[in-house]
């Protein structure tokens, strides 16, 4: 891989991680509200979420880099649109849930996000599809956690 491609890859990964992290920072301290909710016994400790999301955002950024130039495949234009849509939905969820406390709206967003990731996996190059699998699994788990909070609060 050439220097230019390496720099592009690093930029893709860093921008996706920073924007995703920025949504969490923008939301602010939510511990009092969140800790007061009835949550599933399967809810991981709070410290797990930034670690998992940093890893997933790195994968998502790598996939963006692949989609935008490293791979050539059919339906690339539509895949780019679906990729950007899933990013937008991903970044919308945090403020809807944590800042506005609109748990039902966040549930709709996370379910649409899961479907969008699934569509992306079907349309994209096999490499992208495989790399997006952990993201889809985590989003489905997040949908369960969101549903639990919506149902029991």
Topology (SSEs and partners):
Elements lengths: L2 H25 L3 H5 L12 H23 L5 H24 L3 H21 L2 H27 L1
Helix pairs in contact: 1-3, 1-4, 3-6, 4-5, 5-6
Please provide a brief summary of the model.
The protein is mostly helical and 153 residues long. The protein contains six helices and no strands. The chain has a single domain (3-152), classed as Ferritin.
Helix-strand string:
HHHHHH
Provide the gyration radius in Å: 16 Å
Percentage of helical residues? Answer: over 70%
- CATH first level: which class? Mainly Alpha
The oligomerization state is single chain
The largest pleated sheet is described as: none
Average pLDDT taken over every residue: 92
The amount of beta strand, in percent, is under 5%
Output the CATH topology.
Answer: Ferritin
Keyword list:
153 residues, mainly alpha, Ferritin, 0% strand, globular
